[in-house]
Amino acid sequence: MAKGKNKKENKEIEERESEVQNGPVKRQNGELESTVHVQDLYKNWFLDYASYVILERAVPALNDGLKPVQRRILHAMKRMDDGRYHKVANIIGHTMQFHPHGDAAIGDALVNLGQKELLIDTQGNWGDIRTGDSAAAARYIEARLSKFALEVAFNPDITEWQRSYDGRQKEPVHLPMKFPLVLAQGAEGIAVGLSTKILPHNFNELLDASIDILQGKKVQIFPDFPTGGYIDVTHYNDGRRGGRVRVRAKIEITDKQRLVIKDVPYGVTTTSLIDSIIKANDSGKIKIKRVVDNTAEEVEIVIDLAPGISPQVAIDALYAFTDCEVSISPNCCVIYEDKPRFMSVGELLRASTEHTLELLRKELEIKKADLSEKLFFSSLEKIFIENRIYRDIEECETWEAVIETIDKGLEPFKPQLLREVTEEDIIRLTEIKIKRISKYNSFKADELMRQLQEEIDRVNYNLAHLTDYAIDYFKHLKEKYGKGRERKTEIRVFDAIEVAQVAVANQKLYVNRKDGFIGYGLKKDEFVSECSDLDDIIVFRRDGKFMVTRATDKAFVGKDIIHVAVWKKGDTRTTYNMMYYDADSGRSYAKRFNVTAITRDREYDLTRGAKGSRVLYFSANPNAESEIVTVHLSPHCKARKKVFEFDFGKIDIKGRGSQGNIVTRWPVRKVAQKEVGESTIGGVDIYYDPIVGRLNTDERGRLLGNFDNGDLILVITNDGKYMLTNFEMTNRYDPEKVVVIEKFNPDTVISAVYYDAELDNFFVKRFKIETQTTNKPFSFISEGKGSKLIVATTAPEPQLEIEYLKGRPKKEFSEKVQINDLVGVKGWKARGNRLSRFQITYVGLAENSDEAGESKLPPEISGRAEQLDLFGE
């Protein structure tokens, strides 16, 4: 029996498999059963799933900038709103009436909204996006809608509604959002087959841009992150796919061995940032002693550098090897008309502004209709009471007779009413209480109707000038809610960091000249220099060939090595002096050349290419020094002079492919160096790029001068400090702070005007630089809190223009004075002379001065000082 049963079951299984593979199968009763292929099921299910994730979970809608879970949270909070805080756990429970997912998903979305600090007022521990600390449990924290959210996000009269997932409740299709929310908050989501990443923008800048759009102006907006820091928007591409922004932490130098990180990049926490720093240190990219996280109300990560590490180079290394710099690729995708749509942030802002304009129009039309209805019924009520139409219904015996009698009584007055009188209007008249009829005041009724008409006229005016009305609306939002929402992320142009130049030398380079190996794993061979594993190594051989290769543990580069060193791309200073024997002609040649650019691991020939050619003499000179060498010819040659001197300084520096100058046609026995001369290329022109705050030799920015070894740069900053630095390309200067930057001359006199907060006076001083310490700032103004540098210049005869108030009533006067006449040259620590006893409103360099420029007083200083008058009574 069991065997027969199994046979029957197997037959049924085979029939079902046949149905799936071959279509319908005819049963014994003759009926056909329809079947669906498994692959078709997967196709349909996958499309349903993909559409659901895109439309209902991951991507925000263009109309209100919200994902469905966010919209349902705000809707639930609006239903609960009573002005007081509610437990987040309670909000989550109410939201679950509309959202068909678990409490964890709703809670995470609610915390994310709360951390934006825009739509939700929070109370309790909501976590910290800077440190990555999570929020407390939902039962411990509270929230309510912000005043801003209540003003811009809700209006049931213009909201389109739909049934909730279980049909028990109604929920909004979109909230009537009268603000570009998705650009203010940002959005990120991964759907099936697409993703979105919209970066947050500044609240006030969005409102200003919306106003500009309404005024027909072109707009350009850039991201602004709540974590602060710096951002390079050169390749932002208006937020489109393919764009990119670079974000950096704000790093300050407190002394020669300490750096402090003040802001973290967007999307990076202090914990992950410190982990990346420790990882870079462990891998040898940077050298630090310790990292301390002092973050509390403000971000503060203290980095103590290892001895001998330049803080300027360390900053570049942090940007190159750690999360102090991150790259973010925006991808602006929103749901529009039930489809995902990719657009730029400019297009998104324009669409949002036009949507807000339409919502404002609908609100005005609804308000107009409400006011017109109030005016209509007030007029109807006045006619009904003043003409005593209510008395005509005293003898009516039926309800229909009452309605007919009132309608007949109103007939003469209908032409003056705003619309036709309906039965519902007559019923409302019958509901007027006797008390109101007896105390009816015709004057008050006329006043009410006049006010209603004025409001209707005002609404009609706004509808006729809808654009102006919308502009005023955006200005109102900025004035009411824009305070404290100033830009936090500074927009800058970042310089390109050569990682090989800033990487710490964490390896030792060795060479086996005879066998032709180089690397940092050849511990028993000849030591060359320290290097990093990111460095390029240049190798010259006796046969006149050279190549550049990446530093590695061990690499074969060819036998008979004569020179090996770390090579820097674009190095125009290092010059190679070489003398070689050409096997083809039998002559000896001398040449000088640079190696500025090559293809890595490619072999280059420095001779004329003949087999058997060889190098007779070779030297590498870091500053293009000339040389005099002694050439010894073969004693068996017929040359009259068998020993002579050759000066490399007399030949030009050319490309590496040049054959060089003929030295002799006789065989050379040996070449020996006699003496090393001075550099033959002079100093190097150094430029300062004020956009990125870096030095360069590529003619970007302003020429500071021609620099030789030992020359320094003078930098004066707006905090009243000066500093001397070398001219290394790794130096960085804050463009926002630099007032003066130039080649240092010990005879230069600095003229300065500053405000001393302790004495509440303006002072003028002139001084020379007396210190010799480099890379250390020295303050030449009073260090009291509130002291400010007003003017600083190195012009030989600077002229000040001063505006001040004098007399009673106070009148404004303006004078021009030579700083040289006000004060003599004193020490840099001297306080200087007081400037004026009158109320100064402006101090700046005069237009005819060498460095004229505006120097308005800070608002906290203007109008405070009353000092000794050096140019008045």
TrEMBL record:
Record-linked InterPro entries: Topo_IIA-like_dom_sf, Topo_IIA_A/C_ab, Topo_IIA_A_a_sf, Topo_IIA_dom_A, Type_II_DNA_Topoisomerases
Catalytic activity: ATP-dependent breakage, passage and rejoining of double-stranded DNA
Keywords from the named record: DNA-binding, Isomerase, Topoisomerase
SMART domains in UniProt: TOP4c
Active site: 140
UniProt xrefs under Gene3D superfamilies: 3.30.1360.40, Topoisomerase II, domain 5 (3.90.199.10), Topoisomerase, domain 3 (1.10.268.10)
Database matches in PROSITE patterns: TOPO_IIA (PS52040)
A family per Pfam: DNA_topoisoIV
Superkingdom, taxonomy of origin: Bacteria
Topo IIA-type catalytic domain location: 59-502
GO biological process, one term: DNA topological change
Region (Disordered): 1-28
GO molecular function: ATP binding; DNA binding; DNA topoisomerase type II (double strand cut, ATP-hydrolyzing) activity
Cited PANTHER family: DNA GYRASE SUBUNIT A, CHLOROPLASTIC_MITOCHONDRIAL (PTHR43493:SF5), DNA GYRASE/TOPOISOMERASE SUBUNIT A (PTHR43493)
Similarity-based family: Belongs to the type II topoisomerase GyrA/ParC subunit family.
Name this polypeptide is given: DNA gyrase/topoisomerase IV subunit A
Species in which this protein is naturally found: Caldithrix abyssi DSM 13497
Lineage of the species this protein comes from: Bacteria, Pseudomonadati, Calditrichota, Calditrichia, Calditrichales
